[in-house]
Amino acid sequence: MRNCLPVCAMFNYPGNIHIHSSYSDGSGSIDQIAAAASSAGLNFVVIADHETLAGLPEESITNGVVVLVGAEINRLHSHYLAFDIDRLIEPDEKNPQNVIDRVNEEGGLGFIAHPFEKGHPYIEKGKAYPWKHWPVFFFDGLEIWNYTSHWRGRHPSPFKTLYWFFVNRKAAMDSPPREALQLWDCYSIAGHHVTAIGSSDAHASLYNLGLFKVTVFTYSFLFKTINTYILLEEKLSDNYYTAKNQIVGALRSGRCYISFDSLYPGKEFYYYAEVGKDKILMGGEIGFQKGIALHIKTPCKRSMVRLIHNGTLISETVGQELKFYPAKPGVYRAEVYFRSYFSRPRPWIYSNPIYIIPA
After folding, report:
1. Non-local CB neighbours of 281 within 8 Å, separated by 6+ positions
2. Are the CB atoms for 46 and 26 separated by under 8 Å?
3. Residue 157 clears pLDDT 90, i.e. is over it
4. Shortest CA distance to 303 belongs to which of 351, 264, 256?
5. 86 near 69, Cβ under 8 Å?
6. Is 199 helix (H, G, I), strand (E, B) or coil?
7. What is the pLDDT confidence band of residue 7, given thresholds at 50, 70 and 90?
8. SS3 356
9. Largest Cα–Cα distance in the chain?
């Protein structure tokens, strides 16, 4: 059984992934980013500057935040996030499978970034950076929900854009792109263990408005939007190298989940399979047998909990908990919607799957 732990306490830690610093097109230093993350209550951040590892010497625990440095490879399209690497990987937009393979050869961790990004005329004259070459294989994960990328393609009118920006920024984040969820499910059902992550794609970009400079989406703001939480059996270490290995290990194995924390902090969400005295965490697999129970627990009473099997909804309940006894093998993942008093339930938390394989 993969990701199988004895029944014991689990610890979950929020982090923000896919951040740009002043080493590429972000406006802040790594120290400033760590300070903003600390104020937002995060435990780790992952820097992904464009085609540079200039920030690598600054990997450390800063302001109580574990800072990991990787790179975003490729420029015009087919962006790939590469972490836990010591040397920069050459870009290859014509054949991004080569980038994936080279990251793997270096022992790195790689995620396809904003695969279905859409542009809009109001933002950078419609620029977008989607993934253009399918199929690809042997990547570790998929960025299914990216705040900045999602915002880029969500502008139905100038009036509504201004309303969202100044009055209700939550409204623009309706859900991860449907195509990204379908792609994730497709790979998972086909037998590929693909870790899903959520990210901010933070730049804290500065724009000149006459005599004033305005920061659009500050680091502090974005670090309270779409975060990725990791699950650990032991507390996150105070030693940098140990903590880095804990974070990379959790992301690599899928022991993590995505939360749109602007709705409500996703801390204390749990999803696991239980059989006998063992718990199988997100990203884990277990052979099908009688008596397996899937447990979902959310941090808020205003929840609608959904269980997805092979891409299809099979169980749904209103409340903080759902318990389900699967009748057949497959890929099981959880979704949680936040039940607002003023609108329909909103997509909030997405777990990584538990894989129940034929015995």
Report:
1. 3, 4, 5, 10, 231, 255, 272, 354
2. no
3. no
4. 264
5. no
6. strand
7. very low
8. strand
9. 68
For residue 315 the two structure tokens come to 């169980």
**Three-state secondary structure call for residue 334:** strand
**pLDDT at position 8:** 47
The pair phi, psi for residue 246, each rounded to 5°, is -65, -45
Please report the DSSP string for 264-313 in residue order.
S--TT-EEEEEETTEEEEEEEEEE--TT-EEEEE-S-SSEEEEEEETTEE
Q: CA nearest 30: which of 16, 17, 42, 47?
A: 47
Tokens representing 342 are: 């003023």
**Mean pLDDT computed over 134-152:** 93
Taking the alpha carbons of 77, 143, 89, 132 in that order, is the dihedral positive or negative? negative
Question: What's this model's pTM, rounded to 2 decimal places?
Answer: 0.94
Contacts 24+ apart (CB under 8 A), 307-313: 307/332, 307/333, 307/334, 308/185, 308/332, 308/333, 308/334, 308/335, 310/185, 310/189, 311/181, 311/182, 311/185, 311/186, 311/189
The pairing of strands 195-199 and 205-209 is unpaired
Pinpoint the alpha helices (H) of the chain. 30-39, 96-105, 147-152, 158-166, 178-189, 219-222, 240-253
Which residues have C-beta within 8 Å of that of residue 37, sequence separation ≥ 6?
A: 16, 44, 45, 63, 65, 219, 223
Q: Tell me which amino acid residue 109 is.
A: L
Query: Residue 221: pLDDT above 60?
Result: yes
Residues paired with 296 in a beta bridge: 271, 322
What per-residue string of b and e applies to 226-239 under the rule 16 or more CB within 10 Å gives b? bbbbbbbbeebbee
Domains of the chain and CATH, by start: 7-267 (3.20.20.140)
Supply the DSSP string of 70-96, one letter for each residue. EEEE-SSS--EEEES-SSPPPP-SS-H
Q: Which pLDDT tens digit goes with each residue over 244-268? A: 999 999 999 999 999 999 999 999 9
Q: What is the pLDDT of residues 76-108, one digit of tens each?
A: 999 999 999 999 999 999 999 999 999 999 999
Would you state the pLDDT for residue 6?
Answer: 44
pLDDT of 349 = 98
